[in-house]
Design brief:
The complex is a heterotrimer of chains A (381), B (537) and C (305).
Chain A lengths: L23 H11 L1 H23 L20 E2 L2 H14 L3 E2 L3 E3 L2 E7 L9 H6 L3 E7 L7 E8 L2 E2 L11 H37 L1 H16 L2 H12 L3 H29 L1 H9 L3 H37 L11 H10 L6 H28 L5
Antiparallel strand pairs in A: 1-7, 2-4, 3-4, 4-6, 5-6
Helix pairs in contact in A: 1-12, 2-5, 2-12, 5-6, 5-8, 5-10, 5-11, 7-8, 8-10, 10-11, 10-12, 11-12
Chain B lengths: L5 E12 L2 E13 L4 E5 L6 H8 L7 E9 L2 E2 L5 H4 L7 E4 L13 H12 L4 H14 L5 H4 L9 H13 L5 E5 L7 H18 L2 E6 L2 H7 L2 E6 L2 E7 H6 L4 H7 L16 E14 L9 E14 L3 E5 L6 H8 L6 E6 L2 E2 L5 H8 L2 E4 L13 H12 L5 H14 L16 H13 L5 E5 L7 H18 L2 E6 L2 H7 L2 E6 L2 E7 H6 L4 H9 L1 H9 L1
Parallel strand pairs in B: 3-8, 3-9, 6-7, 7-8, 13-18, 13-19, 16-17, 17-18
Antiparallel strand pairs in B: 1-2, 1-4, 4-5, 9-10, 11-12, 11-14, 14-15, 19-20
Helix pairs in contact in B: 3-4, 3-6, 4-6, 6-7, 7-19, 8-20, 13-14, 13-15, 14-15, 15-16
Chain C lengths: L1 H28 L13 H10 L6 H13 L14 H36 L4 H15 L2 H15 L12 H30 L2 H8 L4 H29 L3 H7 L5 H9 L3 H29 L7
The chains are: A alpha+beta (381), B alpha/beta (537), C mainly alpha (305).
């Protein structure tokens, strides 16, 4: 092909048209935007993150609020209590008040029953009704002159448990949202930790090479032969179970892969002619790392991090499943799944909803990671 | 004239890419008659390979061929793989540019040559072996009884190409398509392979379709030539006619694309700028912890040279001769033994910090214009990086002004400095790399095969540019190349290297006209057709 | 080759030594001990126990004692299961874990490579998308979700297979399926990627240019190259699968060695934890060696001498 000048128009002196190129990052961005699966995943992920971080403030129930009357109620779009549950619940509340009960009528959101007693009705018996999670604002109406009979009325306290409740009577939706938050937070923090450790370690080993590299990679090999769970369990046993420890533990084990990848990439980049060219210009180590090695490392690192986050979330879930994760009343998706699988018979929703949430989350992360890899590493197409 | 055995009419190849459909071949016509050699000539991207790939059903999955290609009475375009398999490998065979990767690394070569025999020639596996040995002998593989059980990685590039040829000849094909079969090989090997192909054609009488960018080969080898450019055949004809009276401007341009002119030596009293004495570079190969004794490979073996101001010392050698290593050692980019002096400085043992102030005077330009520019920096950042090191106090405006100046000097439009390297062609990138070196106003530039990755026509422009810059700034070059045509146009003094040693050195004309050493003579003979052609053209 | 294997085994000794040392001191530095978990013991008994298990000696002496015993193949007594030695526990548990792990690996290997290769050969077809989708699902859903679902569906609801326990081949089906599913998915993805890459390589182009039948092109020239990354993946994976999966063994109530780890660590069963570390590290080292040897057999370019 003949050499043609990049632009035929010479710039007028004094004013130069700004020709701005498309950087490799912008190219990758364009490729990513064309990838429907990745874009959908990014949207799903965004929604999940929003749910995790804002959701818990919006739910009507706190994640640790216990409703003793609503233990293990199935998921439902209708409000609780269900119509057929109102009368028996009212009945049992009134029975505790030891009064004679007439026919119970439900009228919209109020429930009424004529009551009578041998003695004058104690106004304090409304407490028996109020004490139930189902009713509020209990009152005695139409009190007869002698005070021995009247109508007990109460408003039905309607609650929504869209995902049902767990075996302690806590709203599953609220718990899933807080679990989502914890899982996401641990996944992200652990990945950041692995990222910092792994990139520093790998880049140092790869850039300096030689004996330093040999020793550093030997250490990684040895750590690889140590079972991961051993390490985590030890840490947890050492310092007790808490949130910070868990993400540190996961980060500390996941950095090994990152270190290997970064080292390999650094070795490759170091051999590139543009690095040799920089050396020939007299650029010092810092400049070479900053201007040449790190920017070109970013691609593979970004890809690896997106695949690391789901891995970290999975590990956290595994730890929670084994009872080594976050502690009650706090929860995580793994812990919820573990509880769900223990209650699988009779309360399937306890497994289904957390499992679906986790799966969707991991799916989105994986697809986004794949999309990023394709976008940043176009040789795969 | 005999009837064509291959008739191509209106062959079109389209590729579906992210930026839409790209038409790589735009309806070409082509005939091949029995026993003749047809060359398809063109520079990279001309569609010369893709048209043959399309015929053989070898397009990448995003490629589509249309039009017609008839082999005898058989239409090849759109033929099912099963039917196509009766033709390819039996009647039409192909050898490729990449001898290193075209054979399956996991199998012995004997087995790979036998495969087309077993599947087309009706041989049993046992019966195929003597035939494979015969073929290996035919293509000149030494010691075939032993080599038949070798794996591809145990053979040299030239030997692998011979194995490919053996495979291609296994079933006595009518047509052999050779897709740049010598481009990846050293000059001397190139000559051997070309001679082998010519001999085999005389002996066996098949037609050869020769795809190449190298006009020297075409002239020596082909009966007829098709010149392709951007997917079209722009000119065709008998080789002699086409070379003596080219019709199309593009053909004329290609013919004139060999670098011309000579470099006059500098005045005898020009001061020596860079001098190496007994320079030696060794690499550790193998060895290490528990792995036995360490073995050293002496890549540069006691080499002395002196470079005067305004001089161009050319270092010629084939791959593995140590010429690039020598170039880097002279700039202290590799640890070496022996003494190296730059002007008044003894830099024999200079470390990175000692060298830093000298770096702006000692610059380097690489072979690969795609690998030598940092992909995530703009062109402006790339060429001004040296200024950050050597004139850190320079304000950004002034840096920018110098970048503009440097880009103008290498013939690029300065408005492009905010673009990224991948947006430029190979020749433009090489200009950027030259600008990066020139912006520092160096005294010595080591040019490591700066034209080898470029098309001929672009090569010529880069050679012209380098010579202009040399004159303008009184530069001294160390010019490393395996390409004798370019070497002759660039250097006034030549060092011939083989296996780390100097085998011959002297003024350019002497080396070219009266080589004394046997190896130099072989090199020259290998390139002789190119030289002869240049004289007539 | 033999000398290479010997050399590799020799270099495993310092690695093992470091691992043993590291984990010994790490677990011993953890607060708590094997005898103060449940109700407090009588001080006299505690003292006797400590004496019996050498806990009254300085740590470095205990370490040397442990090393000495280890060299003789003695991993010490278990503290949480006082009637057994750690070697006893492993000799009954390890075969069970290996049986399940090996079955899962074989299934994953056969199924995964087949699916991956088919998907790659029909790239961008519905089959391909199907395989990729199912594989992503398999990688995404954690075993501790699959296991209870399988157990509920086939064990409890359909009643085809036992929901847990150990004994007959029927007991193996669900745990092996649980373990094999994600591995199959990963192997399928790896194979698919490697096959696509191999199909684009120059030597496959050569095979096609020479009109070799599709079977030869695919099986001989593509799949052998495509299996290489699977081999290097399966090495460390095999090591971890054969040494038992905590999740699967817990959910299906299988008497393998996977459970010992968590139980041992929580109960400060020093010897049991150490034993598990030693066994797992040994498996990892051996399997890395096996992978390297296999690699050399499959790829003539790789040589170890």
């Amino acid at each position: 092909m003949t050499e043609v000048p990049a632009s035929a128009v010479a710039p007028a002196p004094g004013e130069e048209p700004q020709v701005v190129g498309r950087s490799p990052w912008q190219d990758a961005w364009l490729r990513l935007r064309r990838n429907k699966a990745a874009v959908t995943s990014a949207v799903v992920l965004f929604v999940l993150m929003l749910l995790g971080f804002v959701g818990p403030y919006l739910t009507p129930h706190a994640y640790d609020q216990i409703y003793p009357q609503y233990v293990r109620v199935p998921a439902s779009l209708e409000a609780y209590p269900k119509e057929d549950a109102i009368v028996p619940a009212f009945q049992s509340a009134l029975e505790r008040a030891r009064v004679t009960i007439g026919e119970i009528e439900v009228d919209g959101s109020t429930v009424r029953a004529p009551i009578s007693s041998e003695e004058a009705l104690d106004p304090r018996i409304v407490r028996y009704v109020d004490r139930s999670d189902l009713f509020e604002n209990a009152r005695i109406e139409e009190l007869s002159g002698d005070g021995r009979s009247g109508v007990m009325a109460a408003d039905v306290y309607r609650l929504h448990f869209y995902f049902g409740t767990d075996s302690n009577g806590r709203d599953l939706l609220a718990r899933i949202l807080i679990g989502l938050r914890i899982s996401l937070a641990i996944g992200i923090l652990a990945s950041v930790m692995a990222l910092l450790l792994g990139v520093t370690y790998g880049a140092v080993a790869g850039y300096f090479g030689g004996r330093i590299d040999n020793v550093m990679m030997r250490v990684v090999d040895i750590l690889y032969s140590l079972p991961f769970i051993f390490f985590v369990i030890l840490l947890v046993v050492f310092f007790g179970r808490n949130f910070v420890l868990i993400f540190i533990a996961i980060g500390c084990t996941e950095w090994l892969d990152m270190a290997r990848i970064v080292r390999g990439q650094t070795l490759t980049i170091k051999r590139q002619e543009y690095v040799q060219a920089a050396e020939a210009l007299g650029v010092n180590t810092g400049g070479i790392l900053r201007r040449h090695i790190v920017p070109n490392l970013l691609g593979p690192v970004v890809v690896f991090v997106t695949l690391l986050v789901p891995k970290a979330i999975l590990l956290e879930s595994l730890l929670s499943f084994l009872g080594l994760g976050v502690q009650e009343p706090l929860t995580s998706l793994g812990l919820l799944i573990s509880e769900g699988s223990a209650n699988l018979r009779g309360a399937t929703w306890l497994l289904t909803y957390p499992a679906i949430t986790l799966t969707v989350l991991l799916f989105a992360l994986n697809f986004l990671g794949d999309g990023l890899r394709d976008a940043l590493d176009p040789k795969d197409r | 004239m005999a009837e064509p055995i291959l008739t191509v009419r209106g062959l079109t190849v389209d590729f579906q890419t992210n930026d839409g459909v790209v038409r790589a071949v735009k309806g070409i016509d082509l005939d091949v008659r029995p026993g003749e050699t047809v060359a398809i000539v063109g520079e990279s991207g001309s569609g010369k390979s893709q048209s043959m790939m399309a015929m053989m059903g070898l397009l990448a999955s995003n490629g589509r061929a249309s039009g017609s290609a008839r082999y005898r009475d058989q239409e090849l375009i759109g033929l099912s793989d099963r039917r196509l398999n009766r033709v390819r490998g039996a009647k039409i065979t192909m050898i490729f540019q990449e001898p290193m990767t075209s054979l399956d690394p996991l199998y012995r070569i004997g087995r790979q040559i036998a495969e087309p025999l077993v599947h087309h020639g009706g041989y049993s596996k046992a019966k195929a072996r003597p035939r494979v040995l015969e073929l290996l002998r035919l293509v000149g593989i030494p010691d075939p009884e032993r080599r038949i059980d070798a794996y591809p990685h145990e053979l040299s590039g030239g030997q692998r190409q011979r194995v490919m040829i053996a495979m291609a000849l296994a079933n006595d094909p009518d047509i052999l398509i050779a897709d740049e079969p010598t481009t990846a090989l050293d000059v001397t090997i190139q000559a051997q392979i070309l001679k082998l192909l010519a001999d085999l054609q005389t002996k066996l009488g098949m037609a050869i379709v020769f795809i190449t960018h190298d006009l020297g080969i075409v002239r020596r080898f082909a009966d007829r030539v098709y010149v392709m450019r951007s997917g079209e055949v722009v000119e065709q004809g008998q080789t002699e006619t086409l070379f003596t009276t080219p019709g199309h401007p593009y053909t004329k341009m290609l013919l004139a694309a060999e670098p011309t002119g000579r470099k006059a030596p500098p005045p005898a009293n020009a001061p020596v700028l860079l001098e190496g004495r007994d320079v030696e570079v060794s690499f550790k190969i193998g060895g290490g912890f528990l792995a036995g004794p360490t073995v050293y490979l002496r890549a540069v073996d006691h080499i002395s040279l002196a470079l005067r101001r305004g001089q161009t010392v050319g270092i010629v050698g084939e791959s593995g001769s140590g010429k690039s290593t020598l170039g880097r050692a002279l700039l202290r980019l590799l640890p070496s033994r022996g003494s190296i002096r730059f002007e008044t400085h003894d830099i024999s043992n200079a470390d990175r910090d000692d060298m830093r102030p000298l770096r702006r005077e000692l610059q380097l330009v690489f072979q690969d214009p795609f690998g030598s520019l940092s992909p995530r920096m703009t062109v402006g950042q790339v060429i001004t990086e040296g200024l950050l090191v050597h004139e850190p106090s320079l304000p950004a405006r002034e840096r920018d002004r110098r970048a503009v100046e440097a880009l103008r000097e290498v013939g690029l439009d300065p408005v492009m400095r905010n673009r990224y390297p991948h947006e430029f062609s190979g020749g433009q990138r090489q200009r950027i790399a030259i600008a990066r070196a020139m912006i520092l106003k160096p005294k010595v530039v080591v040019l490591d095969e700066p034209t080898s990755a470029l098309d001929r026509s672009v090569q010529k422009q880069i050679v012209d540019l380098l010579r202009t810059l040399q004159k303008a700034h009184d530069l001294s070059y160390i010019f490393i190349s395996h390409d004798l045509a370019v070497m002759r146009a660039m250097a006034d003094y030549i060092i011939v290297m083989q296996r780390g040693r100097i085998v011959e050195e002297g003024p350019t004309e002497e080396i070219f006209d009266a080589p004394k050493d046997l190896y130099t003579q072989t090199l020259m003979a290998a390139a002789i057709d190119q030289t002869r052609f240049r004289q007539t053209a | 080759m033999l000398s290479y294997v010997l050399r590799r085994l020799a270099s495993a000794i310092p690695t093992m030594f470091i691992i043993v040392t590291l984990s010994f001191f790490m677990i011993r530095l953890a607060p708590g001990g094997p005898f103060d978990i449940e109700r407090p013991l009588d001080p006299l008994i505690l003292e006797n126990l400590n004496k019996a298990y050498n806990f009254d000696k300085p740590l470095w002496q205990q370490y040397l004692l442990y090393l000495g015993n280890l060299l003789q193949g003695d991993l010490g007594p278990s503290f949480t299961r006082r009637d057994f030695s750690v070697v006893d526990l492993f000799s009954t548990g390890l075969p069970v874990s290996i049986q399940i792990g090996l079955s899962a690996i074989v299934i994953a290997l056969i199924l995964g490579t087949t699916l991956g290769a088919i998907a790659a050969l029909r790239q961008n077809s519905l089959t391909d998308y199907g395989v990729v989708g199912v594989a992503t699902l398999g990688i995404t859903i954690p075993t501790f979700v699959i296991a209870p679902i399988l157990s509920l569906a086939f064990g409890v609801m359909l009643g085809w297979l036992p929901a847990g326990g150990w004994g007959t081949w029927q007991h193996m089906v669900l745990p092996v399926a649980t373990l094999a599913l994600p591995q199959t998915a990963i192997v399928a993805r790896l194979t698919r990627g490697a096959t696509i890459e191999a199909l684009r390589s120059n030597h496959v182009r050569t095979a096609r240019a020479y009109g070799l039948p599709p079977f030869v092109v695919v099986v001989v020239h593509t799949l052998r190259a495509a299996i290489l990354p699977v081999v290097s993946y399966l090495g460390p994976t095999a090591a971890s699968l054969l040494t038992g999966s905590v999740v699967v063994e817990t959910i299906f109530g299988i008497p393998g060695i996977g459970r010992y780890f968590v139980q041992g660590a929580l109960g400060r069963d020093y010897t049991l934890v150490m034993g598990t570390v030693v066994v797992i590290a040994l498996f990892i080292i051996v399997f890395n060696l096996i992978v390297d040897i296999l690699y050399a057999l499959l790829d003539p370019r790789v040589r170890y001498d």
